[in-house]
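Troubleshooting log. The previous run stalled partway through. Resubmitting the same two chains, unchanged.
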Amino acid sequence: MLVIGGGIAGIQSSLDLAEMGFKVHLVERLPSIGGKMAQLDKTFPTNDCAI
Amino acid sequence: MLDVGRHPNIDLMAYSEVEKVEGSAGCFKVRVRRKARYVDEDKCTGCGACTEKCPTDVLDLYNEGHSTRKAVYSWFAQGIPSTHTLDPDHCRVLLGKKCGICQKKCEAGAIDFEQKDKIVDLEIGAIIAANGYTIFDPGKIAEYRYNDLPNVVTAVEFERFLSASGPTHGHIDRPSDVAVHMQIKELEKEGNKLLKMLARFEEKQGKKSEEFYETYVPGETDPDLVQWAGRYEEYLPVKSRLLELQKKAETFSTAKRLAFIQCVGSRDLRYYPFCSSYCCMHSIKEAIIAHEHDNATTSVIFGMDIRAVGKGFDEYKVRGGNKSNISYRRSRVAEIINGPNDNPVLVYEDTQLQVVKREEFDLVILATACAPAKGMKELSEILDIEINRFGFFKTSPENPLDTTREGIFVCGCAHSPMDIPESVAQASSAASRAVQTVTVTPEKLLKIS
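Second attempt completed without errors. Output:
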């Protein structure tokens, strides 16, 4: 399995596939994963930390 | 994120790009370019000793350019993988100059200036494209003067200001004030350098510079004295400018009157006609957090309407209005102009009162549209799938996660604008669609035979 993009969507897909027993290659353009979500401080509507 | 780094079934290929996809569903052949980090992934412990000593400052895009990082860096502090990366556009050694301090400082011996890009060929059953989105460039909307006014920022920039790990350590310092503080620092540095030079003359001549300059007449022949006077003349404007700025800086405080402008680039026929869906809630959240940081903060959210569609969202909006000093104003802001003290002034029509108003704020935050990711077109060509008229991957209403090529699926903002819970839900759906492609069922076998 190949997942392109290591943002929240890519991370979730990869984890789901990996949990199902598939070998996943997660390709991310930037030096580390997290995507736009990693730039967020808190998330709505619960004000939980993003990371 | 941590789970991804640790999971035995996940091969994390960060700092890499997909170059070529051949074959068909169930047996794709994919070529991935692993870009050279110039740091050995197996040796780097992520300690950061290299970053500490690196002499080159580069604008930090993680903080939206509001701070600097070094030429050897990790994208952000808790980043996975924690391997550091050398920036080939700024590293002195990679640009052919002398340096190499990081290599000396790295105890693990991980810095490798000779590293080359690696090409990896993979055999893949199904592909999920989750390459996200880009933030709309508000500079395109001339009337909001994003590029000219320092105190007009995007929602993501403001998010970084709110973050304790951000450029302002969680204080909402206005960019114009930060720029003045930077100027003061530069002037202090310059002034100290000149003062050191003057001190040398003072010691030699046994006189204070002021006393000397009072009696100094132009036309002096002693080269030493001419030089002294020259330096003092250089120092005077630096000193007066420094005093002026320091006086100005005393009046600075954090931003307390915030204005949020909704639909910047979205629901706008000139740019993107669609609704970006998450920005209303994003602005409310930022206003609530800003109020948590400082109870004196008041926020006005300017929008055509507030779209709080989701579990617990409307309650959140009402709570913001009741408890966090947020007022919602139905309006589309016509223009932002510069007021006194770099305060942005909004010109808008209050549609409920039907009057055109002008209102001054400390900081304006633009809720920018969710635009298709950069490189979307290139990726669609590599994957050989179609994009829709807005630039997102094309899907059909019956199979919302299937792209136009069998075995390739899409989720998250590469599909269309959506918030985090929706992205997560879609990601799980895309994963199960991908599994369906590669699982052999009796029905499928019958079809083949």
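Takeaways: Residues 2 and 25 of chain A are 5 Å apart (CA to CA). The first strand of chain A starts at residue 2 and ends at 4.
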